[in-house]
Design brief:
Helix content is 38%, strand content 11%. The chain is an alpha/beta fold. It has a five-stranded mixed beta sheet with strand order 1-4-5-3-2, with helices on one face.
Length: 209
Amino acid sequence: MARRPPRPSEDDRRLWKRVARTVTPQAPVKSAYVANDATEAALQEAARAELAELMGEVTPVTKGKTRASKRSSAKTASVAMPTAASVGLSIKPVAKHPADKPPPEELEPRRKRRLSRERDPIEARLDLHGFGRFEAEDQLRAFLMTSQARGLKAVLVITGQGRRGGGVIRASIQEWLASPYLRLIVSGYSVAHQKHGGDGAFYITLRQR
């Protein structure tokens, strides 16, 4: 165990007090650089600006957007998008899809009567006797497309009645005419008059191009 230092005697204390009275305290040393008020204010302002920028970069996300993204959104919103008129473009209406055309309707009695009496001419005929179902559909489509291209208005299609009136082609004709492709070509149809084939034939009117 370390020995404790001896306590100073009364003579030692009096001697220390005499020595202390003769010692002059040293004046504190000042810095050679003293900033004036303007410099100090500029430094404080720069420090605050740097701190504000740093805090802006690490601002927590609020409702999915940062402060920077809000500033970007504000800039984007202020920019007016060009319109077709401002850049001199003309917009043409989009052509209708074939499905937008209504299916052909049955002819009005007056129109059917005029065709049966040939006051409105029947300008072409197609006989589908002897064709299978798929061949007949191809023949009908090609015939109607060609007739429209020639500018014809009304044609006659002979399907035949089949055995006991149950012919496959006759039963399919209305379905074919209502298909998306042929509804662009055909405007109406009706069973023909007896002298033109009766239940085994159809008057078909065509849309004008």
